[in-house]
Design a protein that fits this description.
Hypothetical protein af1432, mainly alpha, about 60% helix
């Protein structure tokens, strides 16, 4: 019995095509993380009382999960942050297979928002559960909840071993950004990982706002000016 049968992974034509794309272009560690994201996202949904095929589209959830890190491939390494690059590549791929535009949009949102969990959780389940599943697979980044069932985790890790997943993700994101610094702007998720690797100091808000060209918003701005603006 394959892992897809044992763990009840979606087996539609689109799901199989997306799986092949992720498996053939991602490192094994990232691919395994992507599939585990679906399994843990689906479990998180079950714990919230969400039923696949009734409360959300299980195929769309799987497509969003298995492709959510496709931006960390050579094919996906473009000129945006890796999450947006991945969303663009996934949308192009799925559109090419005939997926309707409204369904492609859901997958795009799920991938582009997966590192912005506080936004993703406010969106429809197919989007929220991608972010939740990815966070659960990375431990402390996941939503609060009861511990995962040990037997289920053992089955998942046997079928899709971790292969140092968190470390590989960190290095892949940072390596992309070091080669193309515009992929990791200050205060972004990739930017923070680059800062942790390099030890570089980020500019402060005031430094950014007073760099050239500037609108001079800080000129003459002190305690009395702040009080005036506050209406004191």
């Amino acid at each position: 019995m394959s892992a897809f049968d044992d763990l009840n992974l979606p087996d539609t034509d689109l799901a199989r095509s997306a799986t092949r794309l992720a498996r053939d272009t991602e490192s094994p560690a990232v691919f395994h993380h992507s599939v585990r994201t679906y399994l843990y996202g689906r479990l998180h949904g079950e714990r919230q009382g969400l039923r696949p095929g009734h409360d959300y589209d299980d195929e769309l959830l799987y497509l969003g999960c298995v492709l959510h890190d496709i931006g960390l491939t050579d094919e996906g390494d473009r000129d945006q942050t890796f999450d947006v690059d991945g969303a663009d590549l996934a949308a192009e791929f799925l559109s090419g297979l005939g997926l309707a535009d409204d369904r492609v949009e859901v997958v795009w949102d799920a991938i582009a928002l997966h590192v912005v969990s506080h936004v993703a959780r406010r969106k429809r389940p197919e989007i929220a559960l991608v972010s939740a599943g990815a966070g659960i697979d990375l431990g402390p980044l996941g939503p609060d909840g009861p511990p995962l069932p040990e037997e289920f985790v053992a089955r998942v890790h046997t079928a899709f071993p971790r292969l140092h997943g968190a470390a590989v993700l960190f290095d892949t994101i940072v390596d992309q950004a070091l080669a193309k610094p515009h992929k990791a702007p200050p205060f972004s998720f990739p930017g923070e990982l680059v800062r942790q690797r390099t030890g570089e100091r980020w500019p402060t808000w005031r430094e950014l706002m007073t760099a050239e060209p500037t609108w001079n918003d800080y000129d003459g701005y002190g305690t009395s000016a702040r009080a005036d603006l506050a209406g004191d």
